[in-house]
Design a protein that fits this description.
The chain is about 5% helix and about 55% strand. It has three helices and 16 strands. It has a 16-stranded mixed sheet that branches. The radius of gyration is 18 Å and the shape is globular.
């Protein structure tokens, strides 16, 4: 039952589809125009998800997750503030209580992270992370001030490539990708930083597919897959798969991932504040 704690991590991984490039400093994958009129999201969007776990006799929604974005001012400049959060439901708190929140502040023009904050509680373990970023032409430096229930307080610095971002920033950058620069079936490397580690994965674009999402309906989607590495969480038997709406919003509507014990699935439950019509939702 302690595998329930990975419910929120699955949602965080789905937001790590390719770390995309602009025509300025990033050279990973191309993105569309990031100006106000062309962005895939507005200043007050909210998405909520149900996370489902199946293993043995367990076949139920065990956690809820949320994504939201708004704007604020930091260092005298307007920036986006994005939050990804998740928590186990009350009944499953009795087995392994999880509370997870990721906050990111990133620039409105180039989607470069300025600050990152993580508050994580998993059973008796807890972690707090406050990170700040400084970016140069083709690289960056992150300074993380952390405290955990196991290690106490500590700080570290890491040098990053321009394609290694925090998870919330990568999610919102993903939604502005330009598919004309992405080939079906081709493996694309990507990386993200989480606390004191940088993670490297590969992503594959599988093309378009209509997905039936419980409680939502049939949605025309762009289908992606991750080549996840076997370890403490994932089985390594197959990819994490994610279906993203094939419209101007580009929101994840469904995802699935095989774990070493059981399987997680997630589905979009509700949405509000979308900038564009949800035109991929089939009536």
């Amino acid at each position: 039952m302690n595998r329930i704690r990975y419910a929120t991590l699955i949602l965080f991984l789905l937001s790590c589809l390719p770390s995309f490039a602009g025509n300025d400093k990033r050279t990973c994958l191309p993105v569309k125009d990031l100006s106000e009129n062309h962005r895939a999201f507005g200043d007050s969007e909210n998405l909520s998800y149900k996370l489902h776990y199946k293993w043995g006799m367990i076949n139920a929604d065990v956690a809820d997750a949320y994504m939201k974005v708004d704007t604020t001012t930091m260092n005298g400049k307007k920036v986006f503030h994005a939050t990804i959060s998740g928590q186990t439901r009350k009944f499953y708190d009795n087995f392994f209580k999880v509370r997870e929140t990721l906050d990111s502040w990133f620039t409105r023009d180039g989607f470069s992270p300025v600050r990152f904050k993580r508050i994580s509680k998993e059973g008796n373990y807890w972690l707090n992370n406050n990170s700040s970023f400084v970016w140069y032409k083709d690289k960056g430096v992150v300074t993380a001030n952390m405290e955990t229930s196991r290690k106490g307080q500590f700080s570290l610095q890491k040098e990053l490539t321009s394609c290694t971002l925090d998870i919330p920033t990568m999610f919102y950058l993903l939604r502005n990708m330009d598919l004309t620069g992405v080939e079906v079936g081709k493996r694309y490397p990507l990386s993200f930083i989480m606390d004191d580690d940088v993670y490297a994965l590969h992503c594959v674009y599988f093309g378009k597919e209509t997905k039936n999402v419980s409680g939502l309906g049939r949605v025309r989607c762009l289908k992606f897959g991750f080549e996840v590495v076997a370890g403490d969480v994932f089985s390594g038997d197959s990819d994490l798969r994610c279906w993203i709406s094939d419209d101007d919003n580009r929101i994840p509507v469904y995802f699935s991932a095989p774990l070493k014990i059981g399987q997680f699935k997630g589905r979009l439950e509700s949405y509000e504040g979308l900038k564009h019509p949800f035109s991929s939702l089939v009536k």
